[in-house]
Specification:
Layout lengths: L1 E14 L2 E6 L2 E7 L6 H13 L3 E2 L5 E3 L7 E6 L21 H19 L4 E2 L7 E15 L5
Parallel strand pairs: 3-6, 6-7
Antiparallel strand pairs: 1-2, 1-3, 1-8, 4-5
Enzyme class: hydrolase
GO cellular component, one term: cytoplasm
InterPro entries: Daa-tRNA_deacyls_DTD, DTD-like_sf
Length: 150
């Protein structure tokens, strides 16, 4: 699993001109899933996201987590995070999990992240054409891959 985490002051996802999810201060998390991913990846990655200390403390240092700030999360499925651009100019997405495998993992990821956040994670819709709007705060953008834990 691979995520791109953006610290935001606000964000939303719109599908067919209807806002599906909207948050204030927190994270937009773009999630890519491969066929090799398991519940172990979900456990590790959700803990990493919740524990990230990228919010400012009283001294202005990035020393607090999303839990410390009572932040929100907007989770967006993003198979293109596993694009391969080695050959030619059209990306290949062969490493991305197929929907029959990815959807259950995405749903488990959403549930576990909500549980650890202690509030419901807002989401887009798996496989939909989504318009994501956000104000990146900082900017702070972090990439994490569950297969690169070291």
């Amino acid at each position: 699993m691979r995520v791109v985490i953006q610290r935001v002051s606000e964000a939303s996802v719109t599908i067919n001109n209807v806002i599906k999810g909207k948050i204030g201060r927190g994270f937009v998390v773009l999630l890519g899933i491969t066929a090799e991913d398991t519940e172990e990846d979900i456990e590790w990655l959700t803990s990493k996201i919740i524990g990230l200390r990228v919010f400012s403390d009283d001294e202005g240092l990035m020393n607090e987590s999303i839990l410390d700030k009572s932040g929100e999360i907007l989770l967006i499925s993003q198979f293109t995070l596993f694009a391969s651009t080695k050959k030619g100019n059209r990306p290949s997405f062969i490493k991305a999990a197929k929907p029959d495998q990815a959807i259950p993992l995405y749903e488990k990821f959403t549930g576990m992240l909500s549980q650890k956040l202690q509030r419901q994670v807002k989401t887009g819709e798996f496989g939909a054409d989504m318009k994501v709007a956000l104000i990146n705060d900082g900017p702070v953008t972090i990439n994490i891959d569950s297969k690169n834990k070291e």
